[in-house]
Structure formats: structure tokens, C-alpha cells
Amino acid sequence: MSKPNPIIFTHYDIEWCLYDQDRLNQYRAAIFKKCKGKVVVDIGSGTGIQALFAAQAGAARVYAIEINPRAAGIIAHNARRNGFEDVIKVIQGDGMEVDVPEKADVVTCDLLCCGLFFEPEIQVLNNAKRYLKPGGQFIPEEVESRVELIAAETHTYGLRLDYINRSTELPGDRPLTDAAIYNRSRFADDLSGWIDGDVVLTATQTGVANAIRTSGRALLAPGIYTGRTVSLFNPETVFLKEPIPVSKGQQYRMKLHYLGGGDPLEANIAVAEVAAMAPAAE
Q: Whole-model pTM above 0.85?
């Protein structure tokens, strides 16, 4: 399977997610729903917060896999300080390569980014199928991605900055079409690692579209979805190579192709006006 370039998370990244309580309360609810009495593997454990949630929920054992040696040490300290040192076992290493001593009932992995860009959630969970018992479950179960055409602000600080993608919305950004689902990645399936979308959008405004904007959510457990939080599923703006004019009421077909976990700047995005249907013959 194709692999994206590795992303190394700093302590700043890990802490930013740790104190995003909206994000983690959603995960905590899903973990409490699925992990009581279970063997759990937490990949990319960071500070160990999801491993701690699983121990709180009554998991039998939790294997916390973390590649960063500093973070792995923090997980072990957090487990001891919370009285879970007999439940949480820390494995320092790459979640794509290490083994665990027993098969798991649940695998959890929070490597989510809007549009499934940047972070290798698909590749990690495809690989993690080898950890699961028959009938085992993932958290999250699936990710849904949407896309729309927008007129995006191009100048900031008196400079033109319309090459780099961004997850920050600016005051001049204006949606020009409705949004449509272009991908659902269900992690229990055998996913290729590539994202392919083919959607038709209807213009709600007349203007010049110079970017797409992706949004999304994840299904963590039945009835438990993520929403947009401080650090999760912030809409991703990716500038088009060439702007296109759009007219209110007109439809536009968009095709997207990129590697999950890859760089938005390397995504193939094609947009074309849908030809008007010929009138029916009398």
C-alpha cells in the first residue's frame, strides 16, 4: 500500500489535542461504550489520554503504542499517577511496525485531519487489522468528507498567500456552492489508502471560485459522531491551480484524487461546468 510521508508530532501538537475537551469528550463517550472488559490497543497514544479513558471504562488491558520516546515516558507516568499501571502497558515504537502480546477487541487511533489529509489514519488502521480479534472494532469506525467551491481570501499582511493550503477561515472567504459528500472511509473495509471523489455541486452564488473547502466528521461509535472542535475537523482550504467563474444555479462536476495522509498541495482536483441538458424532443 502507498504510504504518505511521515508526520512527526511535537509536544505542542500533543498538548493542543489533550486540552481540546470537546474532541476528547466525544472519544471518551465512545471508549466508555466499547471498551469495558476489553483488550484495547491505542495507536499514536500521545499523552496516553485515550488509554487512560479505556482504563477508566474498565478495560482488561490497554496497550498504548507511541513512537515519540518522550511521550511514551509521559504515558507511563500518567498511568502510574492514576493507578492504572497494571492495566496500561506502554509500547514505544512505530504503530505500523510493532507487535502486541495478544489480540485486541478494540483498536483506537486519533490521527484525524479534515479530508483525511496529512495524518495516516487509513494506513495505520489498515495495518492495525492484524491486532484485532475476529469481530473486533475500531474507534473511529468511519470518516465522512464533504467539499464545496469557495471564493477564498488571497491576501494577508499585504502579501499574496494563495498557494499554501490553510485550515484557518478568513473574513473574506465566501462559499459559492453547496457542499457534497465526496468520500466515506469505513476502516473495517479493505481501503486502498487513496481518496477518490466525484461529485456535482450547485452554485448558490455567482463569483470566481479559486479554492475548494473540505469539511467532515467521524463516526466513533453507534450514535456518537465528532463535530468540529478547536483541533479537529477545521475546514481545509486548498487553492485551485486555476480559478474558475461560477454562475448561480449552474452545476459543476468536481473530481478529487489524493493519497490519504498526503499533502493537499499534491491533490489532483478537476472542476468543470456540467453541460445543460438538451431539451426533450416534441
A: yes
